[in-house]
Amino acid sequence: MSDKYTVQKLIEQYGEENDFTGGASSIAIKQAEELTDTQFPAAYRWFIERYGSGGVLGIDIIGIGKNNTYGVSKITKQLREQFDLLNNLIVIEDCDEFYYCLNTDDSKVYFWDNIDGMGEIVALDFFSFLEERIRDMSEN
How far apart are CA 119 and CA 30, in angstroms? Predict the structure, then answer.
């Protein structure tokens, strides 16, 4: 399992100016949770508090953007309405043809697409997911 310190070091190593929107307040996070009718796992909550939304090396983690734009809530609600995304999943990365979703019940990250629905587990937690994505992208 990864941790926030490993993720933070990788972000510092590969990050550039304006890669992230900036941290969100606990009030904004609570609002995003209410909009998705979920409670975010601690690791994802930490990411939003520290970085808001964004990423490095072409990775774009959906969170809360500038002026409290609730990207995570918007895309999650949209996929729930259009494609029956399960209520315990929130969308954390949109890869055009598929999505990475965080399960708010078990904190695991899943592959999901609008045809087959929830697929395989890609990481046991958000930190492991983000660390693996950054390391993979740094090698390509």
Answer: 28
Q: Write out pLDDT tens, residues 25-52.
A: 999 999 999 999 999 999 999 999 999 9
Token digits of residue 104: 């708010």
- Give CA separation, 18 vs 15, 21, 118, in Å: 9, 7, 32
What the chain holds in terms of domains, given with CATH numbers, is: 4-139 (3.40.1580.10)
The two structure tokens encoding residue 125: 């937690």
Do residues 35 and 78 make contact, with C-beta atoms less than 8 angstroms apart?
no
E strand or H helix at 110:
strand 109-113
**117, 82 Cβ separation under 8 angstroms:** no
Overall pTM surpassing 0.90 (yes/no): yes
Give the chain's residues under pLDDT 50: none
Check if the beta carbon of residue 131 is closer than 8 Å to that of residue 7. yes
Query: Under DSSP, is residue 1 helix (H, G, I), strand (E, B) or coil?
Result: coil
Separation in Å, CA 58 to CA 94, 104, 118, 134: 11, 25, 23, 9
Count of other CB atoms within 10 angstroms of residue 65: 19
